[in-house]
Structures are given as C-alpha cells and as structure tokens.
Design goal:
This protein is an alpha/beta fold. The chain contains 15 helices and 5 strands. 53% of the residues lie in helices and 9% in strands.
Length: 326
C-alpha cells in the first residue's frame, strides 16, 4: 500500500464538517491545544450521529504501559458493545515499549480498505492516537507513514498568525483586550496556544471588575495597580495587571523590593508603629499578621526564582499570587 501519510489538520477539520471520518488518526505535535480541539470536534461529530454509551467510547492513557497492553485492551473492549466504538489513546509516545504495534498495524492493514474518509456508517471503529512527538528515524514511525493511517502534526503557530489566534481565543473567552494587553500576549516568550489560552482564562475570571480597573490608559501605572489590587485582597484583579509589566525583568525585579517594603509597612501598622505608607491602616484591616507572613515568604521564593530560574517571569508572579492567597 502507498499509505495515506501526513494529512494537515485543516483537511481533517473539513472532512469532519462533512461528517466524513477516517478509521485511524495519529495526532502529534507541540501545540496540544490544537490536538485537544480536534479530538473534541471528532467526538462531537461522531456522537451527533449515534448516541454515546458505556460501550462505544473509551479514552485510555498509554503512559507506563506497553503498546500491546493498550492495543489489546482497546480491541477487547470493542467486543462488548457489538457495534461501533471510538477509542482515544492519549500519551501514545509515553508507552514503555512499541512492541505489539507492528502486529496491530498489520491486522489493521489487512482489514482496512483504504484509510481515507468514509461515512460513519461504513466504519465499525475509530481509533485516535495522541502523542507529543514522532521520531522519523524509528522503524515503527516509518511503517506508520507507509500505512493507511492518517498522521497529522499540530505545528507551532507562525508569528504572523498569532494575532488571528489571539483574537479567536479572546472571543471564545469573551475577553475584550486593550492594545497593551494584545501586544503583551503577542510577545509572550515562550509562546504557544496553551500558554495563550491560560492567560486569557485568567483574564476572563476577573469579569467586570477587570474592565473597571483597566479603564486607565497609562502603562506606567500598571505595577501600582497590581500592588493596590494585591493589598486589597483581589488576586484575580491583580492577575490582570501582570501582563503589562511582569514580562520585563527590568520592571519586575525592582518591584519585588517595593512589595517587600509595603509588607513591612503594613506589619508596622499592625503593631501601632508609625509608617511611611498612606494606606497602611486600610491594608492592615484586611491582612492578618499570619497572612502577611505567608505573603512575605512567597515573596522570598519569588525573589529567588527571579534571580535563578529560567521560568517565564509572568509564571513566577502568578505562583507568588497563588502562594499568597492559599
């Protein structure tokens, strides 16, 4: 057989829109969000034609299992329903051993009459392999490309296409972005749809309060807004102010010192000592000493990460917020 080889995700999407399905898919690549959306769309299309039940759908993980264990299991499970079955095999590239895949592939090839798109009624099963990588040097991979299985890669988003994805995901999260937020999301490093989606979800969590707090245009005020939201005990609002400045270490690292100084001033206010911060009394009513200790320890960890960790600066500040508001 000549094999189906690689099929672009957009081709698979068009086939699904026409209710056409392939007997076996292999999705891999760095953009996990693209793969999850494609698998979700596949499930939706399949079960728009037939009713889902305990026998016709199974999702299994190949992690720490041999290929034989996973494949034998899915074939056995398919016997009980007596009809069609959709099986999703997650983390296929994490299987302990590929042994057994070649034999399964031979059985599939003997059974298959072409791996191209068909009506659902023409198929008795659909199997979806999901992995993060595919090593073209391996014998198993070469056999895969020579088979009737459609292999689709979720390739990284090109920089020129980032804007389209930002707008699309922002619409799905019902987030209206300011110019500065759009630019910060476009310039995330590292950049992936997974990271973009997470940041937009965090922004959406703040709801109307975020829009009120982001009414001003001055980018210079953003760190101050973060500080105000933090000490007002509004962590979701504080998150929305991270994107505008925390990505720049020249802005973020000095701000750690300002946060530490503010915590010390609020502690002094708790003890009745004079302070240099106008709103100390107000903050002290909201924060107990134990709360301030927890935030201070979280800030120490943030400071250490800023100086030694390769983690994205934005992620370090989000960790700080999560640790401060346990």
């Amino acid at each position: 057989m000549s094999g189906v080889s690689r099929v672009e995700l957009r081709v698979i999407q068009k086939e699904l829109e026409s209710q056409r399905f392939r007997p076996v898919y292999y999705f891999f690549g760095s953009e996990r969000l693209k793969i999850r959306e494609m698998v979700k769309r596949l499930e939706s299309r399949v079960f728009s034609e037939i009713e889902r039940n305990e026998f016709n759908f199974e999702s299994v993980s190949a992690t720490s299992k041999t290929a034989s264990e996973v494949l034998d299991s899915t074939e056995t499970l398919g016997l009980f329903g007596g009809g069609f079955k959709l099986t999703i095999i997650q983390n296929w590239d994490e299987a302990k051993s590929p042994e057994g895949f070649d034999a399964w592939l031979e059985r599939f090839e003997q059974k298959a009459e072409g791996g191209g798109p068909k009506k659902l009624s023409e198929l008795d099963s659909i199997i979806v392999f999901v992995g993060s990588k595919l090593d073209s040097r391996k014998k198993t991979t070469k056999k895969l490309f020579d088979s009737e299985i459609s292999v689709s890669e979720a390739e990284p988003v090109m920089e020129a296409d980032r804007g389209r994805w930002i707008e699309s995901l922002a619409r799905s999260e019902k987030v209206s972005l300011t110019d500065s937020e759009y630019e910060a999301l476009h310039g995330l490093d590292p950049w992936s749809l997974e990271i973009l989606s997470q940041e937009l979800k965090k922004m959406a969590l703040a709801g109307d309060q975020r829009n009120d707090l982001l009414a001003a245009e001055s980018a210079d005020a953003k760190p101050e807004w973060f500080l105000e939201a933090f000490f007002a005990k509004k962590p979701l609002i504080a998150r929305t102010h991270l994107l505008s400045w925390s990505l720049n270490p020249e802005d973020a690292i000095p701000f750690v010192g300002l946060m530490a100084w503010t915590i010390r001033q609020v502690k002094l206010s708790h003890r009745g000592a004079p302070t240099k911060l106008r709103r100390c009394a107000e903050y002290a009513r909201l924060w107990s000493l134990s709360d301030l200790d927890r935030a201070e320890h979280a800030l120490f960890r943030l400071d250490a990460k800023m100086k030694s960790s390769s983690q994205l600066a934005l992620g370090k500040w989000i960790d700080f917020l999560d640790e401060s508001f346990v």
